[in-house]
Amino acid sequence: MNINCIAIDDEPLALDIIRDYCSKVVFLNLMKTFDNAIESIEYIRSNKVDLIFLDIQMEELTGIQLLNALKHRPFVIFTTAYERYAIQGFELDVVDYMLKPISFERFIKGVNKVCERMQLDTGTPKPESGKAKTTEPSFFFVKTETRMERIENSEVLYVEGMGDYWRIVTKTRRIMTLMNARKLEEVLHEPQFCRVHKSFFIALDKIESIERNRIKIADQYIPVSETYHKAFFDLVERKKLA
Predict the structure, then answer these.
(1) DSSP letter (8 states) at residue 61
(2) Which of 50, 203, 214, 235 is the most buried (most CB within 10 A)?
């Protein structure tokens, strides 16, 4: 999934920061930046814009006035130095409200919310009861040395701890990231994943065979430690057909 976005802000430094952050996220396509909200209106109407990074307090036309002028509104993340517009942002159904100065970590959280909203809008329809079906995200992000990498859950084979780092092994890549185990467990959990060792998480559907206390995945033998032995084999037992 690629997200076409624009940034609107009358502060050149703020636009520079958005440009820099967008360049570090592979699926963000920053199409254009504007220092004047009025100039952006025709561009938004004439181009496929998925997301607007939008300042609020601008001369001539504020961010809120701009949104009210748009008939078909893309997803919006407010980027502002003022807290007092938060309620209006909620009423306008913006995806996120980020206060300047914006850190890269905070930027990624906002972008992640947009991804989730886009996935819901194009994904599974609501059940007949009218209640929204809750679904697990099909991807997650990890920070490497220079950028944020998006990883599809379905591509992960296993994750191996290497000192302070984790190596995420997928079908096509090996990605090193600095992340604590608790954070990793938030995204690598049942029913797709299972922790089998202090240093290993595995994708359950990628298991080729289990021999005693070893799991084979893609020619790699992964140990099952005593700490995680019972939970893992109980899970295997539940999935066993005979």
Answers:
(1) S
(2) 203
**Which of 80, 64, 66, 113 minimizes the C-alpha distance to 14?**
80
Q: Where in the chain is the domain with CATH 3.40.50.2300?
A: 3-122
Domain spanning 139-239: CATH superfamily: LytTr DNA-binding domain (2.40.50.1020)
CATH class, domain 3-122, is: alpha beta
In the predicted model, what is the mean pLDDT of the chain?
A: 86
Distance CA 162, CA 150 (A): 20
- Strands (E) across 123-184 are located at 139-143, 148-152, 156-162, 165-170, 174-178
Range 205-225 average pLDDT: 93
| pLDDT score of 127 | 34
**Start-end ranges of CATH 2.40.50.1020 in the chain?**
139-239
